[in-house]
Q: What sequence folds into this?
């Protein structure tokens, strides 16, 4: 029997991106693993329901049913948990997440489902490519700052991010219930990485699907040194907080804390020469130091509220 699948989208004040995503989801194709049925769940984390009209318009043209829900509590994990709970209540076997600034390839979900079936995986994640626009800054391209790691299909992975992921519902609910994202990290970001760590500790099988591709539109506001350093600092804080709360031994937590000064020292040591070798080199060194500073701050219990306005800003 074909699995029952839900696609979950979290949105907040990005109606144009949401409309593009829903258009693309309407063009999904299935040659290998067609779900029956498939439905789309949009959770609007804006209390004014600013994306409601977009969803009402798309409902008339989408080949799949669409549920629109608002989550007034500000914070990505609240919205993610609401979406997941709706999917669980609808008795979906599998739940996919994709971001509202992304566009999937037509075979995106088909490939996630194929890999999940072949490897009997609890979690399947795929690549997110970055669209930097027609004229990106040279340093952004030369430094590869917006490129993400990829693996061969079938490779075991330790992190799965909600920009492109498929969960087996019963695995998540058995381990963490129907609201699995950590709501104590409401504005810090990193709750998907935190969930990955929790599921791994409970024995979940996490697999990479390199052919399940989505593309993220990178706005000009993100193509700046300020954004890159802020994001690196947040990543360090999130890594340290996750380690503090989930690592089973004090030694693991100590190792994470000691990595902070190592990254800071390495970044500072590289700065003088990197300034001569180009902006992308100096940014890479500064980003390393910022990540280390985040590790130190997070190890001391600091919470960095990155998402204080609009998701993904």
A:
């Amino acid at each position: 029997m074909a699995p029952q699948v839900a696609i979950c989208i979290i949105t907040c004040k990005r109606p144009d991106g949401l409309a593009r995503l829903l258009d693309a989801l309407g063009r999904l194709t299935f040659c290998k693993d067609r779900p029956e049925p498939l439905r789309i769940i949009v959770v609007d984390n804006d209390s004014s329901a600013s994306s409601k009209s977009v969803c009402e318009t798309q409902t008339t043209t989408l080949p799949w049913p669409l549920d629109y829900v608002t989550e007034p509590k500000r914070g990505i994990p609240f919205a993610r948990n609401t979406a997941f709970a709706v999917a669980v209540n609808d008795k979906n076997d599998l739940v996919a997440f994709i971001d509202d600034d992304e566009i999937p390839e037509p075979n995106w979900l088909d490939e996630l489902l194929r890999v999940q079936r072949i490897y009997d995986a609890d979690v399947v994640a795929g690549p997110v490519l970055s669209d930097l626009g027609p004229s990106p800054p040279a340093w952004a391209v030369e430094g590869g700052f917006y490129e993400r790691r990829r693996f061969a299909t079938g490779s075991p992975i330790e992190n799965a991010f909600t920009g492109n992921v498929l969960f087996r519902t019963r695995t998540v609910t058995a381990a963490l219930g129907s609201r699995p994202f950590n709501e104590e990290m409401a504005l810090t970001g990193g709750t998907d990485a935190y969930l990955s760590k929790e599921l791994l500790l409970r024995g979940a099988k996490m697999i990479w699907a390199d052919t399940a591709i989505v593309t993220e539109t990178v706005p000009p506001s993100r193509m700046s040194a300020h954004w890159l350093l802020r994001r690196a600092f947040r990543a360090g804080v999130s890594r340290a907080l996750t380690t503090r709360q989930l690592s089973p031994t004090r030694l693991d937590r100590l190792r994470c804390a000691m990595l902070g000064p190592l990254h800071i020292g390495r970044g500072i040591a590289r700065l003088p020469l990197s300034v001569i070798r180009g902006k992308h080199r100096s940014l890479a060194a500064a980003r390393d130091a910022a990540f280390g500073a985040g590790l130190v701050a997070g190890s001391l219990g600091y919470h960095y509220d990155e998402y204080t306005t609009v998701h993904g800003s």
Summary: Strands lie at 5-11, 38-44, 66-70, 94-99, 102-104, 123-125, 128-131, 164-168, 206-208, 214-217. The CA atoms of residues 19 and 54 lie 6 Å apart.
